[in-house]
Amino acid sequence: MTPLLLLQALLLLGLIVTAVLVIAFKDLLSSAIAFAAFSLLLALEFYLLQAPDVAIAEAGIGAGLTTAIFIIAIRGTKRYEEKD
What we know:
Layout: H1 3-24, H2 28-48, H3 52-75
Helix pairs in contact: 1-2, 2-3
């Protein structure tokens, strides 16, 4: 197994784990941070697939700007705890 193929397999595993974490987290802030990690791993995968322009756009927009917008939106809401 070549090192590049191993790295891509690890990135795929990381993408799957972070995608599941985005859905599984109940806290919105934790979910937004997991989404940022997903976007960063996706940008790295695009770079390894020799698409550096797409990787830069994904890192800037997906991991950076979108996460900032999510965090600002979450900050503007009130926390509601469900009573059992």
